[in-house]
Specification:
Number of helices: 13
CATH class of the largest domain: Alpha Beta
CATH superfamily of the largest domain: Type I PLP-dependent aspartate aminotransferase-like (Major domain)
Structural class: alpha/beta
Strand order of the largest sheet: 2-8-7-6-5-3-4
Shape: globular
Order of helices and strands: HEHHHEHEHEHEHEEEHHHEEHEEEH
Distance between the termini: 53 Å
Strand content: 5-15%
Largest sheet: 7 strands, mixed
Radius of gyration: 21 Å
Number of strands: 13
Helix content: 25-40%
CATH topology of the largest domain: Aspartate Aminotransferase, domain 2
Length: 387
C-alpha cells in the first residue's frame, strides 16, 4: 500500500537551546565497561571482522584506500546497496550518517518545533523520544497493552492521533521485547498518519532478523511518502564500530533539510567505513542467514533455560530481532539482580529500569556466539546459596 500526501512542510526556526534528558540505558553500559567477560544483553549480532567482509584483493586495496573527503550524501556504492533493500527507493532517497543515532537526531532537529505533538511508542530507544522531548514537543505515549510483554494494540493508536499530530514514532521489530505487528497493522499505522497528514518515523534497526515463523514487515518508507525509515549496519550486521547508518525517505524536503543541517555538523561520513559497509551489504544473504540461525538457536537455548529455572524466570518469547524480555521473580529488583550478576560472574545484563520499563524485567541479547557460556554462568549465579 502506498499513501500520498499534499506536501512536506518545512520546519520553522528551531529553538537555540535544548536540554537532553538523561540516557539511562547508555549510562548502564558505560558504568559496566571493563567489568564483564560476557554480555547476555548486547543488542547487536556477533561482531564481524574486516576479513569477514573483504576478500584478499579487497583487503590489499584497503591499504591504499584514499582518506580524503567523501560525498556529502554518502558513497554512491553504499547508497545504491542500501536502496536495494527497499522496493520503491532510489539512490537519491538515501542519506548516509555516522550511525543511526545521528540520523535520528538530525531528522528531529530539522523537522520538529517546540509545541509540535508527537506520538511515541513507549518503551522505545531513548533518543527517539528524548530528542523530541528536548526540542519542546508535546509527547503523547503509545503504551503497550501488556507492560510485561510489550504487546501493542494498533487500534489504540488511532485514538491518540489527531490533526495536531506532527509525527508518529515506532520501532518494529521492537526494542527491547522483540515483539512485532502484522503487515495489516503496519498499514493501519500508516493510514492513521495519512489521515492526520503526519510524518512517520520508523526505527528499523532490527528488520531482516525475523525468526523463521515471523513474516517480514514492509519498510515504512515503501508505504508512504511522509515515512522515514532509519537503519544501519550496527545491529543486523554486527558492525557497530563502523558507525554507519542511514535515513531513507521519498520526501525530498526531509533529505534536503538533513543535508543542510549536516553542513554545520559532521558534513559527511567516514569513507573507509562506508566502503566496508557496502561490501557487507553485498554479502548480506550470507551474513543475515548466519545471524538469523544464531538468533533462532539462542532463543531455543533461552527458552529451555527459563523452563529449567521457572521458579525464577519467565521468558516472553520474541518474534524478531536480537532481543527478548525475561521476567525475573527473585527477591531482588532486576537492577539489583544485574549488579550482583556483574560482580559475581562478570556477566552483563540490562535491567528494565534503565529502559523505562518494569524493574522485574531483564533484557537478553540473542545475537552473540558466547550466549551459551553466558547462560552457564547465569545458571551458577541462580544456583548459588546467596540466591
Amino acid at each position: 500500500m502506498r499513501v500520498g500526501f499534499s506536501a512536506c512542510q518545512p520546519a520553522q526556526k528551531e529553538s537555540t537551546t535544548m536540554q537532553l534528558p538523561s540516557f539511562s540505558l547508555v549510562k548502564w553500559f558505560a558504568a559496566a565497561e571493563g567489568r564483564f567477560d560476557i554480555s547476555l544483553s548486547h543488542s547487536d549480532c556477533e561482531p564481524l571482522c574486516v576479513s569477514d567482509v573483504l576478500d584478499e584483493d579487497e583487503r590489499n586495496a584497503l591499504i591504499n584506500y584514499p582518506l580524503g573527503y567523501g560525498a556529502f550524501a554518502g558513497l554512491e556504492e553504499l547508497r545504491r546497496a542500501v536502496a536495494r533493500q527497499y522496493k520503491t527507493i532510489e539512490r537519491d532517497d538515501v542519506l548516509i550518517f555516522s550511525g543511526a543515532s545521528e540520523a535520528i537526531y538530525t531528522f528531529m532537529r530539522t523537522n520538529l518545533n517546540p509545541g509540535d505533538e508527537v506520538v511515541v511508542q513507549c518503551p522505545i530507544f531513548n533518543s527517539l523520544r528524548g530528542t523530541a522531548q528536548a526540542i519542546g514537543c508535546k509527547i503523547v505515549e503509545w503504551r503497550p497493552s501488556d507492560e510485561m510483554t510489550c504487546a501493542f494494540d494498533v487500534s489504540v493508536l488511532a485514538d491518540l492521533c489527531n490533526r495536531r499530530t506532527k509525527l508518529i514514532i515506532f520501532n518494529f521489530p521492537h526494542n527491547p521485547s522483540g515483539q512485532m505487528v502484522s503487515e495489516a497493522e503496519l498499514n493501519a499505522i500508516v493510514e492513521t498518519a495519512s489521515r492526520c497528514d503526519a510524518f512517520v518515523f520508523s526505527d528499523e534497526q532490527f528488520r531482516l532478523l525475523e525468526l523463521p515463523t515471523t513474516p517480514r514487515l514492509p519498510a515504512a518508507c515503501d508505504l508512504y511518502d511522509k515515512a522515514v525509515s532509519v537503519s544501519g549496519v550496527s545491529k543486523t550486521y554486527g558492525m557497530g564500530g563502523l558507525r554507519i547508518g542511514w535515513l531513507v525517505t521519498r520526501c525530498r524536503d526531509v533529505i534536503e533539510r538533513a543535508q543542510e543541517y549536516r553542513y554545520y555538523t559532521t558534513e559527511m561520513t567516514n569513507t573507509p567505513c562506508q566502503m566496508l559497509a557496502a561490501r557487507a551489504l553485498e554479502r548480506s544473504d550470507e551474513i543475515l542467514r548466519r545471524n538469523q540461525d544464531r538468533i533462532a538457536a539462542n532463543v531455543e537455548r533461552l527458552h529451555s533455560f527459563a523452563a529449567q529455572h521457572d521458579e525464577n524466570l519467565l521468558l516472553h518469547l520474541p518474534k524478531a530481532g536480537t532481543m527478548a524480555l525475561v521476567e525475573q521473580k527473585t527477591p531482588f529488583t532486576s537492577t539489583q539482580f544485574c549488579e550482583r550478576l556483574l560482580d559475581e560472574q562478570r556477566v552483563f545484563l540490562v535491567p528494565g529500569e534503565s529502559m523505562g520499563i518494569s524493574d522485574r524485567l531483564l533484557r537478553f541479547g540473542l545475537g552473540r556466539e558466547d550466549f551459551a557460556e553466558g547462560l552457564d554462568r547465569l545458571n551458577q549465579f541462580l544456583r548459588s546459596p546467596s540466591q
